Amino acid sequence: MILIMKREIPEVSTLTFLKNAARIVKNPLPFHHENFQKHGDIFRLNIGPKKSVIFCRDAEFAQYVLQKNQKNYIKSEIQTKDLVKYVGNGLLTSNGEHWQKQRKLIQPAFHKKHIANLLDTVLEAIR
Questions:
Q1: CB of 12 within 8 A of CB of 45?
Q2: Structural domains counted in the chain
Q3: SS3 letters for 51-115?
Q4: Model-level pTM greater than 0.90?
Q5: Are residues 60 and 87 in the same domain?
Q6: InterPro entries in the record, alphabetically (predicted)?
């Protein structure tokens, strides 16, 4: 985690994003997989002027951001104003007290035994 925080995050340009937009919409996983292969465990996807999304597959870093230090990470306008129009005001798109309520509601679904039961389904979907 410390190494990720100390180095520059590799960028995927807006042009690359636009060139691949059709296939990203159809199935974003191969595009993200290619960029993880090329850049390592973290990369930034520039999706427009001053707008980017950071993708990370480092479990320790994700745990730090999502659990241990989540109060320091506020969701961007992409999530709170743009994405909310499509997926509603929930865990992915909210901050603060509303986020905490949503997080408590979904917490039981992320118990280790439930995650273990989903492993085969997730692996099949990725392939």
A1: yes
A2: 2
A3: EEEEEECCHHHHHHHHHHCHHHCCCCHHHHHHHHHHHCCCCCCCCHHHHHHHHHHHHHHHCHHHH
A4: no
A5: no
A6: Cyt_P450 (IPR001128), Cyt_P450_E_CYP52_fungi (IPR047146), Cyt_P450_sf (IPR036396)
> Does 104 share its domain with 116?
yes
Cα–Cα dist 89/99, whole Å: 9
Mean pLDDT of the chain: 85
Check whether residue 44 and residue 95 sit in a common domain. no
pLDDT-above-70 percentage for the chain: 94
- Let me know whether 50 and 6 are in one domain: yes
Domain of residue 5, residue span: 1-73
For residue 95, give both structure tokens.
């901050």
Residues 83 and 62 in one domain: no
Q: How many CB atoms lie within 10 A of CB 64?
A: 18
What is the predicted pLDDT for the residue at 7? 61
